[in-house]
Amino acid sequence: HRNVMPKTLEGQITMEKTPSYFVTNEAPRRIHSMAKDTKLIVVLIVVVRNPVTRAISDYTQTLSKKPEIPTFEVLAFKNRTLGLIDASWSAIRIGIYALHLENWLQYFPLSQILFVSGERLITDPAGEMAKVQDFLGLKRIVTEKHFYFNKTKGFPCLKKPEDSSAPRCLGKSKGRTHPKIDPDVIHRLRKFYKPFNVMFYQMTGQDFQWEQEESDK
């Protein structure tokens, strides 16, 4: 794995982005083993967002590729009459952040993990990027002047103020309109995630205020 990574010059940091590492049981042990052998400092940056919104977004992405799949309401439950959420469905399971973090904390101290808020990354990208740069020990080069909000996509775009090249915005797979989900299902999912969210806030020492966000809607 190290052999296929690009060469890093002095003063550079090489990063690899694989979101599935955070929810893959074997990943912490394997990365810890590699880091210990090579005396690397492992820095983990995890983008988290409201797990209910994340699950619907996940489903929306899959639906665009497989329009024949069952509805979100069907997939979310083992037994809807009894209100039993199907936590084995990946769209639901990924949002149980506390369980995944527990696995990572067996190998890495919390000080080596930065949690980036998916919601604030949209509303204040420069602020979140400042935290990332500080965490990595980098000079704050990416600032407010590098972003503008694309109202069509509903996400910020990245631009280079020093040249006239077109801004980089999220691709077609991002910013899709979510299907309308039965409000009762949303309510049940919020109840399901709430204790896990509270546990996650306690473990990280950060309150992502997902419950407050939901009460505002």
Question: How are the elements arranged and paired?
Answer:
Blueprint (H helix, E strand, L loop, with lengths): L26 H12 L5 E5 L2 H15 L6 H4 L1 E3 L4 E2 L4 H4 L3 H8 L8 E5 H6 L1 H11 L11 E4 L4 E4 L24 H22 L5 H6 L2
Parallel strand pairs: 1-4
Antiparallel strand pairs: 2-3, 5-6
Helix pairs in contact: 5-8
How would you summarize this macromolecular structure in one to three sentences?
The chain is α+β, with helices and mostly antiparallel strands and 217 residues long. It is built from 9 helices and 6 strands; from the N terminus they run αβααββααβααββαα. Keywords: Disulfide bond, Glycoprotein, Transferase.
CATH third-level topology = Rossmann fold
Which blocks of ≥5 consecutive residues have pLDDT under 50? 37-43
Number of strands: 6
Q: What is the CA-CA span between the terminal residues? A: 45 Å
Protein name: Sulfotransferase
Disulfide bonds: 157-169
InterPro entries: NST/OST, P-loop_NTPase, Sulfotransferase_dom
Binding site for 3'-phosphoadenylyl sulfate: 49, 57, 174-178
